[in-house]
Amino acid sequence: MKIVVALGGNALTSKKGRGDYKSTIDSLKKISIILADLVKKKHSIVITHGSGPQAGALLLQNELSKKKVPVMPLDVLDAEVQGQLGYMIEQTLLNTLNEHRLKRSVVTLLTQVLVDKKDPSFRKPSKPVGPFYTKKQVSKMKKKGFVYKEDSGRGYRRFVASPYPLEIVEAKTIKNLVKKGIIVIATGGGGIPVYKKEGMLVGVEAVIDKDLASSVLAKQVKADVLLLVTSIDKVYLNFRKKNQKGLNKVKLKEAVTYLDEGHFAEGSMAPKIRSAIEFIKNGGKKVIITDPGNISKAVSGLAGTIIVK
């Protein structure tokens, strides 16, 4: 079975949300054991991942060092974080596979994701990125042409576009690698957003939703399953309320209804449900949403939320 495994931030950082090297490696060692188990069961896997804390750290480094080092645009930082986390995932997984005597190659592929330059999100940037600033600092920085808004009463942050992913530029290469039995790490942090101008690819400053990009990748490589790994064991209606209800097996129509009724929060479960709907609508067989500890059971149909047509 071919599975696209989308690792959320919980699989890459500690519970305190730190993106430092040690906590990231410690978290990856745990998830690598689970991924190795999937490989042992003869599944082909493609790994995607989030990059929240790490991307934020790169943006902060960009800002703090700008007087001494040239500032890089956001699409270049997207590439940097793919390489950074890809290397850490690749090395940790290779070591785990070797420990379990599983001979498989692992490769990290810097991945470009095609978007529409006319996507509405470019007119209304909605994705907060980078460090917090005071109102006084923002008044000086607005001259750069960036958009800054207050974020949840915690200060001001830069807001960027989050365009819809249309296709993964390197999808054919990824598909060919998977056919050869190679584990591919791709579309990290949602990928590097690019658009076409006179037939040429051009990077654009934006951040693509990781789950939506994973869904597009899963469709293009013809995956059987899209596995969305998050911090909770399954999807819940009325989450964290007295009447919360866990969802085990959900039909596509039900998922669409729940999403339309506003059961899932944006920036939390809504993007995952939206990604699941897109994957199933485009020919995918199954979407699984669960936490790291329940991956093996969920793939066997014994845990998590399973969404089917």
Structural account:
By secondary structure, the chain is α/β, with parallel strands linked by helices. It is 36% helix and 23% strand. It has 9 helices and 17 strands. The protein has helices at 21-40, 52-64, 74-99, 135-141, 171-179, 210-220, 252-260, 270-281, 295-299, and strands spanning 2-7, 44-49, 106-108, 112-114, 127-133, 147-150, 156-160, 167-168, 183-185, 192-197, 200-203, 225-229, 235-237, 245-247, 249-251, 286-290, 305-308. An 8-stranded mixed sheet has the order 3-9-2-1-12-16-17-15, sandwiched between helices. Strands 8-4-10-11 form a 4-stranded mixed sheet. Strand 6 (147-150) and strand 7 (156-160) form a beta hairpin. Helix 2 (52-64) crosses helix 3, helix 6 packs parallel to helix 8 (270-281) and helix 7 packs antiparallel against helix 8. The two termini are 18 Å apart.
Span from first to last CA?
Answer: 18 Å
Total strand segments: 17
Question: Largest sheet, described in full?
Answer: 8 strands, mixed
Mean pLDDT: 90
Class from helix and strand fractions: alpha/beta
Helix fraction? Answer: 25-40%
Q: Which parts are unreliable, with pLDDT below 50 for 5 consecutive residues or more? A: none
Note the total helix count.
Answer: 9
General shape: globular
Radius of gyration: 19 Å
Estimated share of beta-strand residues = 15-25%
Q: What topology, given as strand order, has the largest sheet?
A: 3-9-2-1-12-16-17-15
From N to C, what is the helix and strand string?
EHEHHEEEHEEEHEEEHEEEEHHEHE
